[in-house]
Design a protein that fits this description.
With 106 residues, this protein is mostly beta strands. Helices cover 0% and strands 37% of the residues. It is built from no helices and eight strands. The protein has a four-stranded mixed β-sheet with strand order 2-1-4-6, with no helix packed on it. Strands 3-8-7-5 form a four-stranded mixed β-sheet, with no helix packed on it. Bound molecules: copper (II) ion.
Length: 106
């Protein structure tokens, strides 16, 4: 039997170039939930919500402190927010208010 040996093709991972700040933390929006529902980050960190559910959702801050945390209605895609002030920020989906999450900024 003849065996042909070939080196495995080398794979390279392309690093995106540019000025876009990568997300420091990600929240998956799927199956009518925010996951993780509770997330702790540092001041200055950017959180990206990754919308992948069948239904559209929003990220809407609860209370005065969370003003500015207010996404449009998103069907599929990403939405990011940079938290600059320490504190506890609760949010919900305005279309499904039972969907809730908390970001703790240290
Ligand atoms: Cu929703």
């Amino acid at each position: 039997a003849t065996s042909t040996r070939r080196a495995h093709p080398t794979t390279t991972t392309a690093q995106p170039t540019g000025d876009a700040k990568p997300a420091d933390a990600t929240v998956e929006v799927n199956t009518m939930k925010f996951a993780p529902a509770e997330l702790t980050i540092k001041a200055g960190d950017t959180v990206t919500w990754h919308f992948k559910d069948k239904a559209p959702h929003t990220v809407q801050g609860i209370g005065d402190k969370a003003m500015g945390l207010n996404s449009p209605i998103i069907d599929k895609g990403d939405w990011s927010y940079t938290f600059t002030v320490p504190g506890t920020f609760r949010y919900l989906c305005s279309l499904h208010p039972e969907m809730r999450g908390t970001i703790t900024v240290q």
